[in-house]
Design a protein that fits this description.
Radius of gyration: 19 Å
Mean pLDDT: 86
Structural class: alpha+beta
Strand content: 35-45%
Number of strands: 15
Strand order of the largest sheet: 7-9-8-3-4-5-6-10
Low-confidence stretches: 1-28
Number of helices: 4
Length: 242
């Protein structure tokens, strides 16, 4: 069963989810006045109606550059100087080009990219480029190219953060072939229960619950069979991109 991935972009909110056993440790410090875990750079690039196979990444004020690799959150620590240069460069590229740049010519299901950055003064800058870029969009294209390369770097060299929150999707679909049978922990609410019944639900888990579910369900992205509410359902999880 395939799901179209819906992206909701608000200032500092993106709703979009290599398995390992090592937690990334990043020894960096956020600039004065900024919360260490606050997202200061966000990038997403999608094709048509789905973001499957697209790019997505975030950078926090303390230099954690993160993306998803095979459903697991992976981290690359950025030196303070590199982060300052990245933010300043993106602010310059977006200057005078904020908002939505519609290059679709009225066509639907066009690819799009969104770049969001917070400058040193705390102001949010965001540009959404839809369709095929025009010559005047060169600064935005350069910015997306830079962020795409950073995303590739994170995915190729990043360290898995096995403490990251996870989102579990649970649904009923006889046509889906599960990897294996799993046992849902009795003391953890299922996504179906949280959705007040039905045959489909998603729920985000943090801390100890996320750790327990990782152990119970196995590798990120695997479809496993679980029994919940007297039904046989499919469950899968992926880490949450901050």
């Amino acid at each position: 069963m395939r799901f179209l991935r819906t992206v909701v972009l608000l200032p500092f909110l993106l709703v979009i989810g290599c398995s390992g056993n090592t937690t990334a440790a990043v020894e960096t410090t956020a600039p004065a006045g900024e919360r260490p875990g606050a997202v200061v750079v966000r990038y997403v690039s999608c094709g048509g109606m789905t973001c499957e196979g697209g790019d997505s990444m975030s950078v926090t004020a303390d230099g954690r550059a993160v993306s998803l690799r095979d459903g697991e959150l992976v981290v690359v620590p950025l030196p303070a100087a590199e982060l300052r240069d990245l933010r300043a460069g993106l602010v310059e590229s977006l200057a005078g080009r904020e908002g939505t740049l519609d290059r679709t010519g009225g066509a639907t299901d066009q690819p799009f990219a969104v770049v969001t950055v917070i400058d040193s003064g705390g102001k949010t800058h965001e540009t959404r480029l839809e369709g095929t870029p025009s010559a005047e969009d060169e600064p935005i294209v350069a910015a997306t190219g830079r962020l795409s390369k950073l995303t590739a770097r994170i995915r190729s060299t990043g360290t898995p953060d096995v403490t990251a929150p996870i989102t579990v999707t649970m649904y009923e679909d006889p046509s889906t072939r599960p990897i294996r049978q799993a046992t849902w922990p009795e003391d953890i609410t299922t996504p179906i229960e949280a959705a007040t019944g039905g045959n489909f639900g998603t729920l985000t888990y943090r801390g100890g619950e996320a750790t327990t579910l990782r152990a119970a369900l196995g590798k990120a992205g695997d479809n496993v069979t679980v029994t919940a509410g007297g039904k046989t359902l499919i469950a899968r999880w992926e880490a949450v991109l901050p």
